[in-house]
Automatic annotation (TrEMBL):
Protein name per its UniProtKB record: Anti-sigma factor antagonist
Protein family membership: Belongs to the anti-sigma-factor antagonist family.
Domain STAS: 3-108
Recorded superkingdom: Bacteria
Length: 108
């Protein structure tokens, strides 16, 4: 599957939606999109990272997600960033890293 990255604003919430493989090549693109989403808001606008279309995620993809979570907690407070993990690969990576209970996961 080809990599795509969509960002949009719906009802005041910025959505960042990657599709395809989240790896060493694409993780920096996701990281940049998340930083841009953080800067585009007023500092406390919610951001949703929708990972339902991710078909593969390695440690660099996980690192990009964790860095965004950390920035969200430091600069926007809890609840600024929500992650939709989807099913399958992303959930499996989060389970293996023992992060399912510590990340701000939200329903689609």
């Amino acid at each position: 599957m080809q990599w795509t990255l969509d960002t949009n604003l719906i009802d005041g919430t910025r959505r960042v939606v990657p599709t395809g493989e989240l790896d060493l090549v694409t993780a920096p693109l996701l990281a940049r999109a998340l930083v841009e989403a953080e800067r585009a808001g007023d500092g406390d606008s919610p951001i949703v990272l929708d990972l339902t279309g991710v078909t593969f995620m390695d440690s660099s993809g996980l690192a990009a997600v964790l860095e965004a979570v950390q920035r969200g907690e430091e600069h926007g407070g809890p609840g600024r960033l929500g992650i939709v993990p989807g099913e399958g690969v992303v959930v499996r990576v989060l389970q293996l890293a023992d992060l399912m209970d510590s990340l701000p996961l939200v329903a689609p």
